[in-house]
Design a protein that fits this description.
Length: 851
């Protein structure tokens, strides 16, 4: 960031005491600056950072930053000045709405952090943040405990509870009392300004203000103007406003006053907005802003902001402007926000000025083109739609369409279908060509709901939509990735040949689906056939269909389908006991994903690689985000839940953490009943195994029967066989309990699970041998000294202890640690130890302290 644009005034005195607090705080990962308005939180932080030897990103928050999309846009732009390459990567990645993306965010940040001087992220007005999603992001970021990175949090309030829990003793706090002027500082300030005040007057001034910096500055300006000091009556907002009024505002012309008041209607404003509001007088108004000490400008974004208390003062003057002027101001703000790509800001401003058509247009542009939208954004959009005037929203097709899209995002398919059916009834009777196109969009959304319900008729609605949308949906970006990291197999009802009918229906309607979805879903029919064949243990056909899915999907850039097909190939080879074939397919998947560098695809890669290692017994090398202690399905959007959650549950089961697994999956089961047929089968099975391990036979048998009743008539066996010896133990118990299971089915599953267990044991043995050979062959990227220090880190030694043992300075140790992290691509100590063990640089027993 350009230091000269930081929001501070060089004319105000530097206070070395405050600087020392900041300098000491850099040894921690978090500095909090908390005080009431007017204590110079922002000013003192900016002044210190203006000369600090750090790489800096600065961002200021508003209430709209509680919406993850808006917050992420703000954060990316704050990084862009100092870290342009990183900003491009983060912009492409999008807001980290999953643990996979959070992990990717931290790793992208770590690449920058360990490649240069200390990096600082300063965040102003944190008191405006209330979003759980954004708090979770900061929690993840702080828990990473990166060595060369510090967050400075500026807020009117103390830190939130989660930060206290994480950093009760590892945090630097700069408080209101610390920011207040001491008597000596006030004395030096008055002397530097040559005010000629007596010692008695200076003491009285300090007593009157209590060291409150803003009041001191305003009163000093009054003294300089009037050459006298009149004791203030109080330090209230009223007194502050009076000083703002007298010291500056009243000197402006009425036009300038009204212009400033209009700008205060929005927390940020751009040059484009100023141009639209000011017209020919723009140059004069810009000069006013430049000279105003309470206005900050960031040239990288072209955005201005008012100092908080000054904006409060201007807001108190809003009766100066007419309703029409307010309306025009919000209209200009909406147009400006839309031009900047700030869709949530634009939505808010258009709703405030009554441009409802534009508002709905922004919402549909965003909501219909996203696979999974965060809960705060869904609530934000739904609130705007629900508060539209009745005369506008009644029968307005786009309003109802947006609501239906939001209900689908929230996994409320009943409400979505009710809305869509009412729309369809209206539109089917219309001869208007626009109504016909809208009807096609409605059919496309209805198809999506029927997919959630696993109804075969969903393809019929794609066919109906295709007739009305020859060029595809107008609301869908071309070639979007629809299936991500999810199982797609589904059966409408457990009757013989239901799976075959679903497969046939998909193959018959796939061309319509691809057309309507703008190329998305190419290869979907073959991927469905792959999963169907694998789950019925027709492994040769599964491999054949997987290759066809890859061929179709590659040509249409449907990368998620390509990677899922490679994953299913690996599963087929695993079921056959072919560890080499399994390994080759995972390698193909990783190579393909690494060539794309798309976060959605990286999630599939991480999952598939982790599944491969987990199945073969290498639990320690699972990608960390998949088994993160932070993982909680309740915090995820329903549509964002996929295979990774099941693998995490498997991980908990393997570690005999049965109660944790059951708590996780009982919540997931309620969601999977509305989405995720295959996930629901696996959830029932894992719950059966977990309950059985805890001695809860009744719940174990009920969960087993739930999985059995969904699958047995269609010969879906793989989910049971994959459980190996565990399912055989469970089935023997079920037989003793006279559980109503088909006898032939029990024998088939038991025999195949036994054969799979034996084959898996051999594959694990081979994998262990291969892993040792790979570690020997890999070159150690660390120096001898760095290797020794990594071993110390693995033993849990602190930097001070390493410094004493190695007879080097703390700074030298820090430099070595930073180099280790940079060379290994690690986030922190634990990550470096994990990677060191994986590469064979240190032995597993050296990491016992860390685990």
């Amino acid at each position: 960031m350009r230091r000269q644009t930081l929001p501070y005034s060089p004319e105000l005195p530097a206070r070395q005491r405050i600087d020392s607090y900041f300098e000491q705080g850099l040894s921690n990962s978090l500095i909090t600056v908390s005080a009431a308005p007017g204590y110079g939180k922002t000013h003192e932080t900016a002044r210190w950072l203006s000369s600090a030897n750090v790489r800096l990103a600065w961002m200021r928050l508003t209430r709209l930053d509680n919406l993850p999309l808006r917050f992420w846009s703000n954060l990316v732009e704050s990084f862009r000045m100092e870290f342009p390459d990183m900003a491009d990567k983060l912009e492409e990645m999008g807001f980290p709405d999953s643990l996979a993306k959070m992990d990717a965010f931290v790793r992208i940040l770590a690449d920058e952090v360990y490649s240069g001087a200390l990096a600082v992220l300063a965040i102003d007005d944190c008191n405006t943040l209330e979003s759980p999603e954004i708090e979770q992001l900061f929690e993840f970021l702080l828990e990473a405990e990166m060595e060369n990175f510090c967050i400075v949090r500026i807020s009117r309030t103390e830190m939130r509870l989660y930060e206290k829990n994480l950093y009760g003793g590892g945090i630097s706090r700069i408080t209101q009392d610390m920011l207040a002027f001491t008597l000596d500082e006030l004395r030096d300030y008055c002397t530097a300004l040559q005010l000629g005040l007596s010692e008695q007057t200076v003491v009285r001034l300090h007593e009157d203000t209590g060291g409150w910096p803003l009041m001191i500055h305003l009163l000093v300006n009054q003294i300089r103007t009037e050459h006298t000091y009149r004791k203030s009556l109080d330090s209230s907002q009223k007194q502050i406003s009076s000083l703002f009024e007298k010291g500056q505002f009243s000197a402006y012309s009425l036009d300038v006053q009204k212009f400033l008041v209009r700008l205060s209607l929005t927390p940020i404003f751009s040059l484009d907005m100023i141009r639209q509001l000011a017209g020919p007088g723009m140059d004069e108004f810009v000069q006013v802003l430049i000279r105003n000490p309470y206005v900050a400008y960031e040239p990288s974004t072209g955005l201005y902001t008012f100092q908080n208390m000054y904006r409060d003062f201007l807001i108190s003057k809003q009766d100066m402007i007419a309703p029409k002027e307010r309306e025009r101001t919000f209209r200009a703000a909406g147009d400006s926000a839309l031009a900047y790509g700030h869709l949530l800001d634009a939505t808010d401003y258009y709703s405030r000025c009554g441009r409802f058509e534009d508002m709905v247009g922004v919402i549909v542009k965003y909501i219909a083109g996203q696979f999974a939208v965060s809960l705060p954004q869904c609530e934000f959009f739904l609130d705007k739609l629900n508060h539209l005037p009745t005369e506008f929203s009644a029968g307005h097709d786009l309003v109802d369409y947006c609501k239906a899209c939001i209900y689908i995002q929230l996994l409320q398919p009943d409400r979505a279908m009710e809305t869509l059916e009412a729309m369809a009834a209206r539109l089917e009777d219309s001869a208007d060509p626009k109504a016909k196109s809208m009807l096609g969009e409605v059919y496309e959304r209805m198809a999506g709901v029927y997919m959630i319900w696993t109804r075969e008729c969903f393809m019929d609605y794609y066919k109906k939509a295709a007739k009305l949308l020859p060029s595809g949906s107008a609301f869908k970006p071309k070639g979007m990735l629809r299936f991500k990291n999810y199982n797609i197999i589904s059966v409408e009802e457990n009757v013989p040949e239901a799976l075959q009918r679903m497969e046939t229906k998909i193959h018959e309607g796939i061309s319509a689906m691809v057309q309507v979805e703008g190329g998305a879903a190419a290869g979907f029919q073959y991927l469905f056939s792959t999963e169907a064949a694998y789950n019925t243990l027709n492994l040769d056909r599964a491999k054949q269909m997987a290759h066809r899915a890859i061929y179709d999907a590659v040509t249409a850039d449907q990368h998620d389908i390509v990677c899922s097909a490679y994953y299913m190939l690996a599963k087929a080879y695993c079921m056959e006991g072919d560890q080499l074939g399994m390994r080759e397919q995972i390698a193909h998947l990783c190579s393909y994903a690494d060539g794309l560098r798309l976060q959605e695809i990286n999630e599939i890669r991480d999952y598939a690689l982790s599944w491969y290692r987990f199945v073969l017994g290498d639990v320690e090398q699972i990608t960390p985000w998949i088994v993160s202690a932070q993982r909680g399905i309740a915090s995820l959007m329903p549509l964002a839940i996929g295979r990774a959650e099941t693998l995490f549950a498997d991980y908990l089961y393997s570690g005999e953490r049965y109660n944790e697994m059951i708590a996780l999956l009982e919540h997931a089961r309620n969601l999977y009943r509305m989405k995720g047929w295959g996930d629901l089968v696996n959830t029932h099975l894992l719950l059966a195994l977990g309950y059985h391990s805890l001695g809860d036979g009744a719940n174990a048998m009920q969960s087993l029967l739930d999985a059995y009743s969904m699958t047995w008539q269609n010969q879906i066996l793989a989910p049971f066989v994959e459980r190996g010896e565990d399912i055989r133990v469970l089935l023997r118990y079920a037989v003793k309990q006279d559980c109503p299971l088909d006898k032939a089915w029990v024998e088939t599953v038991s025999d195949k699970a036994q054969a799979y267990s034996k084959a898996l044991a051999q594959m694990k043995k081979q994998y262990k041998s291969d892993s040792k050979s790979e570690k020997i062959a890999q070159e150690n990227p660390l120096t001898k000294r760095e290797t020794v220090i990594l071993a110390y880190l693995a033993q849990g030694m602190m930097r001070e202890e390493i410094s004493a043992v190695e007879y080097v300075s703390i700074n030298t140790v820090k430099s070595h640690i930073r180099s280790i992290y940079n060379k290994l691509g690690a986030i922190n100590r634990a990550d470096a130890v994990r990677i060191g063990i994986q590469l064979g640089i240190i032995e597993p027993d050296q990491g016992d302290t860390m685990t």
